[in-house]
Amino acid sequence: MARNDKKPPVPAPDDPRSREQEQFFEEVSEELKQDRYAELWKKYGRYFVAFAVVCVLAVAGYQYWQGEQRKARETASERFAAALALARDGKTKEAIASFAGVAQDGPKGYAQLARLQQAAQLLKSGDRAGAMLAFEQLANDQASDPLFRDVAVVHWAYAGLDDADPAKMTERLKPLLAKENPWRFMALELSALYAERAGRRADAIQLLTDLEKDKDAPAAARGRAKELLAILGKS
After folding, report:
1. Which of 48, 87, 164, 224 has the fewest CB atoms nearer than 10 Å to its CB?
2. CA angle, 194 then 92 then 132, to 5°
């Protein structure tokens, strides 16, 4: 018996049977995809929903937080301005209380400004001990911005010129002598005054000379240094 080696005919590309086969495979593939998606949704759908809910809540929470922060800053700004107005009107006691309130519960920036103003008003009212303590606390507060801490050191040093420990204040002023520090020139002047108080006149003269010759120093600071050098040279 002769073997039949004939193969079944392959449909030509434009044969209707070829298009029917392609359509059949596409339909089967699509059904498999849909079954797979249905299976995945059945298995993981609740996680997708939970993730979507978390995302929505996170965005809403962030927007709410931003709004609250903006309102807090606006409120603190108004309270700070009101405290400044009290200070300008000579109502020092009321100004101190108002600044204390902003310092206690205002946003960080306004709180630090309020602490500085509160200390300044305490000094103005004659409570030098209270002012010195307030300046010192801000100067030592590591949570505060370095710029505010440096300002507090400068005010603290000025307030304590008569009786603060020269060695302690000189040490606290040292970091402010760095060339990039914006309070460098004030720190030079204060360091010279504390050096003179400690009996280190040569150091005081050198510091004042450096200040007087510094072309970057404000004219007022250079003028004071020149006057102090004249006084120290005559005494």
Report:
1. 48
2. 25
Across the chain, which has 235 residues, the per-10-residue mean pLDDT values are 49 52 54 56 55 55 59 82 92 94 89 92 93 94 92 94 94 95 94 96 95 94 94 73
Q: Name the nearest CA neighbour of 144 among 179, 175, 103.
A: 103
Residue 157: other Cβ atoms inside 10 A: 25
Q: Count CB-CB contacts under 10 A for residue 186.
A: 23
Q: Reduce the DSSP state of residue 141 to 3 states and report it.
A: coil
Residue found under tokens 């009212």: 125
The secondary element (H helix, E strand) that includes residue 116 is: helix 108-124
Distance CA 221, CA 218 (A): 5
Note whether 173 and 191 are within 8 A (CB).
yes
Q: Which residues have a Cβ under 8 Å from the Cβ of 58 and sit 6 or more positions away? A: none
Measured CA to CA, the distance from residue 196 to residue 199 in angstroms comes to 5
The residue assigned the tokens 């060695």 is: 167
Structure tokens at 41: 């949704």
Judge contact between 169 and 155, C-beta under 8 A: no
Terminal C-alpha separation, the chain: 139
What pTM was estimated for this model as a whole?
A: 0.69
